[in-house]
Amino acid sequence: MSKQTSTAVGPDGKPQQAVGTTTQLVHGTQVPLGSRFIPPRTRGDREFAGHGPDVRVRADLVISNAKTEIDLRLSMTAEETVSDWTTAEGATASRIYTAPSGWFISGMSVGQSVSRSYRDTDTDVDILTATGATFVRKFEVVGDTSGNDAGISTGVTVFTRPFTVYLSQG
Fold first, then answer.
1. Domain tally for the chain?
2. pLDDT tens digits for 14-66?
3. How far apart are the C-alpha atoms of 150 and 44, rounded to whole Å?
4. Which of 46, 131, 152, 156 could serve as a FRET partner for 38 with CA atoms 20 to 30 Å apart?
5. What are the backbone dihedrals phi and psi of residue 169, each rounded to the nearest 5 degrees, phi first?
6. In this structure, is residue 64 part of a structural domain?
7. pTM of the full predicted structure?
8. Beta-carbon count within 10 A of 65 CB
9. In a domain, 5, yes or no
10. Is residue 170 part of a domain?
């Protein structure tokens, strides 16, 4: 952990340091690690058959366990645009950071939510990039394929960027 203190200016114009604060870098990662999250089929048959699907993906950073852990919650919905409205929908969570003992998360250098949506028009893996001060580098999404889709191959992987976690001693 690289200890760093914040600096404020006191009434005398000299720098003052906040006690009991530090930062840590959370390295970029892949979620889920080494695979793709495949949400379950929730409606219709398993085949999009070239009718979309309309895809929505979302990644959220969730501070949990008394402000000592960060989970990345990844969700996806893929819905056929006609016919029996075949749908795959679900969410999963992965722990991506745990604060050192005695420290609590007081903030992050990035926003906590990123979402993208689009209509899939082919059977290729689609790359959705994120811009700005976000923890998401890209989503890799599979919507329609040449065979059965929902609950089998339709899914998403998120790749994150490094970001800073602000910590305080409790």
1. 1
2. 544 356 899 999 999 999 988 999 999 999 999 999 999 999 999 999 999 99
3. 9
4. 131
5. -85, 140
6. yes
7. 0.86
8. 12
9. no
10. no
CA distance 20 to 5: 8
d(C-alpha 138, C-alpha 8), whole Å: 36
Phi-psi region at 152: left, alpha or beta (left = phi > 0; alpha = psi -120 to 50)? alpha
CB 43 within 8 A of CB 87: yes
The pLDDT score that the predictor gives to residue 83 is 87
- Residue 10 predicted with pLDDT over 90: no
Does residue 103 fall inside a structural domain? no
Task: Give the domain extent around 138.
Answer: 28-97+110-161
Query: Hey, what amino acid is at 155?
Result: G
